[in-house]
Amino acid sequence: MTISSRGAAVKIVLAIVITGCSRKSTDTFDLPETAKNRTIDNIISIEFSKKAYHFSLAEVSKGITIDYTIRVKQDIYNAIPRPQDDGFVSGPGPGGLFPFEKISGNGQSYSLRDLGLGPQNEKPSRTIKKGVYAISFEWEGHNWTGPSDFDNPKGDPFPPGRYILTVRIVGEVETVKRKKPYDIANSVEVILVP
Length: 194
Fold this sequence. Notes:
The protein has helices at residues 5-22, 40-43, 57-62; strands at 44-48, 52-56, 64-72, 76-82, 100-105, 108-111, 126-128, 131-139, 161-174, 179-193. The chain is mainly beta. The protein has one domain (25-193): Sandwich (Immunoglobulin-like). The termini are far apart.
């Protein structure tokens, strides 16, 4: 059986057309048609149930919990959430995102920034599913940057004062042209009294 050059050209053009039709556009985060003008900041939000939290130093020393939610208003395809600790070794939280929590102010700071070294594997793109994900920030009132590789001890307790708890999620969304970064954060005041 012989194929003429014209027949081969038709088959190649047909293959290109079929391949082109099956590829999804990701320029707008692969969102449904009704949401193509939305940005990712309008699709993902971090929400606290209060405008401020008040605790005594005694309460904090026993351990406190501040609940918050990450709300994803619709599926986001081709997302690459990124860990934010120094070694990029933290695991994903609910929904596959990597929330990073930090409380600071008045020269004090607590976060799990240093979890030690580990494999820095490229995180594959994934779908972040629509949903409301409940998460809790737990803290015993000390300065600390995390355990590191050497069991870094916790520092001094925070003194009374006003502090800011910030939760941030970062990453990228793969599009046809490039990877578009996202950085979403929300903060709440935490007031410590004697």
